Every structure is written in structure tokens, then in C-alpha cells.
Amino acid sequence: MNYSFFDLLTLIGSLGLFLFGMKMMSEALQKVAGSRMRKILSAMTSNRFLGVVTGFLVTTIIQSSSATTVMVVSFVNAGLMTLVESIGVIMGANIGTTVTGWIITLFGFKVNISAYALPMIGLGLPLIFSKNSTRRSWGEFIVGFALLFLGLDFLKGAVPNIKENPEVLSFLQHYTNLGFGSTLLFLFIGALLTVVIQSSSATMALTFVMCNQGWIPFELAAAMVMGENIGTTITANIAAAVGNVSAKRAARVHLLFNIMGVIWMLCIFNWFVDGIDQFVTNKNGVSPSESVSSIPVALSLFHTSFNILNVLIFIWFVPLFNKAVIKMVPSQENDGDEEFRLKFITTGMLSTSELSILQARKEIHWFGDLTYKMFGMVRKLMGTKKDSKFTKKFARIEKYEGISDNVELEIANYLTQVNQGKLSLIGRRRVRAMLKLVDDLESIGDSNYNLARTINRMRNANVDFGEGILTKLELMFNLVDEALIVMLENLNEANEETNIEKAKFIETEINNYRNQLKIEHLDNIKNKVYTYEAGIIFNDLFSECEKLGDYVINVSEALSEINPQ
User: Fold this and answer.
1) Do 127 and 138 meet the contact criterion of CB atoms below 8 Å apart?
2) CA gap 202, 209 in Å, rounded
3) Quick one: 181 and 102 in the same domain?
């Protein structure tokens, strides 16, 4: 076989150019549509059918079902989309990815688009150096599009030529005459290639080239396409590996949906392929089994019809998919936080502005519960001795801090939209107060995280306070805990009046005790009760508690504007 290592590198380089072009084009379009992508997904996933349309449109735009599913997984992970909402989008993404096959079919093998590749790069290159970000992104899209087809052209020329290397054909013949075994083998090859290349679109292009060169017949190419449907799910599962339980479940939905589709198709594979063959023969007058030129159209038709039928069959079983993945990825004992998303504010269109304030009020109350739960974790962290448990609890607090930031952002964005509607003067005053309130709640989350970091610093420095110092810190924690409980009582939407007097009384207690500890701290340093380093940590702990108390009273004061006395 006259196929050198240099030729192999050329093949890999051609594939790399194709992938780079696709990546560049995809990322450029995401930049152009970036700010709108979140709104598109949230507004168009109110039911499973709209979700399918959304998945199809987004994947058609960015030319990557993997990118769409990874985005969906990240939105589910952030709590911006429910698991059920994500299923429809994932199904639509499978249909959207078939557009790549049609683009290659219509242009890649029938029109010598590579001849226009360099002029397209010449057109897009000046735009890349533009100071305007939108023009720059469009320039990247044009260059990416050109590189994609340039890579495809190189790919076609880089694969071994069967006429020059008849032994390659002989080698493949050992695996193409195994009947149903060949179907399963090439299905596995398609899945494996997609896992390795990390792009079903690139594997689809490779499959077209193999058919174009006469390596494999139409029916085995169709088997590879089915395998690509399974292989493409690996990207989302890799992305979900570092996500929460909901993200893992969304990725498993993609895998389960594609596997189930392949299973039913295998049951009728020969009849279905014969049907596609007959249809193409009737339309074009040439059978894909007899002419290589008909295979791209037949393969694109198979890919599209298979995925559309898959969606039409399984879209009615979305609740079952939901239950199945919940059993596949059960909640862990300490993972009650897997569903960290807005509980009351919908991700779709806003309701009446005045009613939206009530929704926001419920959400803010839940946000307050989250910050109180976080403080409870900090108290438990203080008494944790075992290293593995300490690390786990500290990581959980760190995760809650990030969630606190996201929740504040989502509620603030929601309130900003509400403020643009028709509101009474009292309504506008309440929205302003709520914006201040969620900022203070997020600051409580920051203070909780700062306390956890100080405790972690204390542990790393091997600082061991005596019983007396620990008792004083415990008393300060109790005062903060009491302040948080009063804050939650005030946040309760059932309470029409804010108990500001009690909140101020506890705040005064915290301030007075902080002043007392500060004086004692200076005496302890002077009398060498503890080291200077330990003293700094002690001071940081009670000072941060006092700061946390300030944010708590700010919440109650903002509430007094929402609930005028």
C-alpha cells in the first residue's frame, strides 16, 4: 500500500482544518447572537414542541448539535432551564445537525466551493481587524466558512485512493459482507470516530468522503450515521461531568434518546434503507447502491428522516425520559441543592407587572432561606475536624456562593424588566427597594463565604483556640443566627408589617459585642493569650460577623419600604 506517514499527517491536517473552520464559524455566530441566545432559549422552551423548534434553529445557526447540548447542559446547571424544558431542545438539536449533511451534499461535492474559499478569506480578513465587534465576528464567520470547505476539499484528496490501493478495498471487504454484523460494526465505528473527533458533523463529512471514494456502500454509511448520533452525546456528558445532578440528567437524556432511536431503527434498518434507496432512485433515476454520486443525497435523506421520525416518536414520552434519567442519576444525600434555579419567577414571558412584584417577593424569600442555610453550613464547618469532611463542606459553601451570585443577577434582571412595565408609584418604589434588598442578600452570601475562607485559613495555619475564645465566637454566631431568623420572618410574604424594632435591637447587640471583643482582643495580644496570627484570624471572624449583621439589618430596612408601616 503506497500510503506514507506524511499522507496520514495530511489526512489529519485536512480534518483539523475542517474542524477549525467549523469551530471558528460556530464561535463567531455565537458571538453575533450571544446576548440573544439566552433570551431565545428561555422564551421558546415553554413547551416541548417549541423546545424542539428552538433546538433545531440554534443548531442550524451554530452548526453543532454538541455546542447546543453543551449550552443546554450549562443552562440547566445554572438553573436557568428545567430538565423537562431541556429535553425538547436536545431533540431539536438532533434534527438541526442534519443541516450540515445537506450543506455538504449540495455544495461540498457538487460545487467546487474550495475555488471560492480564498476569495472568501480575502473578503472576511479585513473584517476580522475591524474595531467593531459585530463586524469582527462576521469576518470570523466568513473565514471559518471558507476554511471549513477548504478542509473538506483537502480531506477528499487526502484519503487513500482505492484504484491506486486495491489492497485497502480488499481489507474493507472482510468487514462489509458480514450482514447484520457489518451494520453493527460500522455503527460502532461511526460512534467511535465521533467520540474521538468530538464532532458528528466532521464524522458525517468523513463518511461522505469514504462513500465518495468507494470505501463503503450506502447501507453501511447509514449505519455509521446512526453511530454518529450516539457518539455526539459524549461531548455533553463530558461537560456535565463537572456539573450538578440536573446537568448530568440533561446529558443522560441526550444519550438515552439517541440510543433508543438507534435501537428501533435497527429493527427496521434493511426495510428503511431500501425505502430511501427506492425514493432516491425514483427521483434521481440513479440508485445509491449502484452509483457513488447518489450516496450523499441518500445519506442526507436517511439522516434527516431518521432524526425527524425519532423526535416524532419520542416527543410524546418526555415525562418518561424525565423519570428515567432521575432514576439513572439519583440525588445524593448532600445534594439537595441540585435544583438551584429560580422557584417562582418563570423563564418565559412576564405576567402583569404588579403581579410580577409578588412573584419576585416569593423568590426573594427563598433567596433569604438560601443565605440562612449557607450560614448554617459555616457553623458546621467551624466544628468539623476530619479533613475529607471539611474539604467537602467548604466546597459546598463555595458552590452556594456562586449560586447566590447567579440568583441575585436573575432576580435583578427580572425586576429591571418589571420596572419597564406600567407600575404605580408604590410599585416602582417597591421594585427599587427589592433591587437594594437582593444586593444585600448576595452580600450576606459573600460574608458567609468570607467566614468559611477564614475558618479554612485557621485550619491551614493550625490555629487552635482555647475553650474561652471558642465560646465567645459561638455567642457571636448565635447573635447573627438570631438576626437572620428575624430577617426571614420579615421576608415572609405573609407578614404585611416589618418588625424593624426587633431587627435593630439585635443589630445593636451584635455591634456592642463586636466592640467588646475588639477590646478583649487587644488585651489578649498584649498578654500573649494567643499568637499574633491567631489574633488576626479571631478578629477577622468576629468583624465579618458584624459586617454580616449590617447586611441583615439593611434587608429589614429595605423591607420596611416595601411594607410601609
Assistant:
1) yes
2) 11
3) yes
